[in-house]
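Q: Could you fold this chain for me?
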Amino acid sequence: MQETKTQEEEEAEIKKAALIGSSNGGGNDEEDEAAAARAKKILIRRPGMVRGRMSWLDRRNGRSWRHAVQTVFVLLNVYLCVQFYLWVRYYETGGASLKVTRPPGVEGWLPIAGLMNLKYTLMTLNIPPIHVAAMFLLVAFLLVSLLFKKSFCSWLCPVGSLSEALWRLGQKVLGRNVTLPRWLDIPLRALKYVLLAFFVWIVAISSADTIESFMTSSYGLIVDVKMLDFFRHISNIVLITLIVLVIGSVFIKNLWCRYLCPYGALVGLISLLSPFKIRRDAEACIDCTKCAKACPSQLPVDKKLQMRSAECTACLSCVAVCPAKDALQFSLPPDKKTAANGDDSGISRRWRKRALSGAVLTLLLVVVVGGIIGAAKITGHWQTPVPEAVYRDLIPNARELAHP
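A: Sure. Below is the predicted structure, expressed as structure tokens.
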């Protein structure tokens, strides 16, 4: 009895939200009529939704699958970084510390090297031997973005996971996050594209010979070690910048990702070609605006039939809070031949075999990323074949090596 009452109260709240919807208390007759029409829409509740949310243990909850994938990738990156640190320390101590193998997966943190190697491969049709894992991981993440929107950022990227954890902490402690005004938000978002253009320009002006010369130089051979030293021997300016970004991320959702990440800018542009998008069925939608309020990228999900924006990360936050069956999903375009005519089963047929659940998207991400890594390993293009004697000579002197 109590559960029925709760659902009735929730439906009343949804109708109330629909009434005030986009009118903002206007008092305009046309707006009032439109709001009244929205309120008359019948809510066909999504299976599994109780009191406006779905249980974290429900397999239909896309956010649960995403958080599980995030956790796995964060732990995997921690493992790779620890192993890489131990590998470096072995050579720095002259073999006095624990000896471990070098983890090629750490090259996922070398996107510029991956981009340079990708250009080299396209120009010469030869796969470079140095830091080749960086290229294959870049290709995997670009392919993920091409197929499944900007899901790399919200599902796989450990920096994106940290950023999300910080703004959720701010939301929990402070009760809300800060939303920048459009006149400031839009130009700040352009910064990441400026940074992307700079790095793309550097790669673009580099010939194949220049790229090969850099990769085989002493600096290029241990550019991954130089990356580690950048954080181990961090300058005061960089440290202060990182502290500002961390604190700012508590107040502003995805501060680094939204405004400064050139990698996110790249995969965002690629994601514009993705066949899968967040799509809204106007006939099933009850215009409660919950989806727009839940979107961390501040996109008008409630006003568009599909989200084409490069800012959409396919995080499924909007889908998770939608109370209406088949109203919002991550999917291919609907079957236009199927007319619903107000029929619930007709709406379902419109989206049949076109939407991706959290479970299916998880499986596809594993297949794409795992498949490319597996192909690289099978063909012998995963490990960087540098003799141990070279590492023994270069790594202890890494801090003295300057960029060629």
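A (continued): DSSP finds 19 helices and four strands in the chain.
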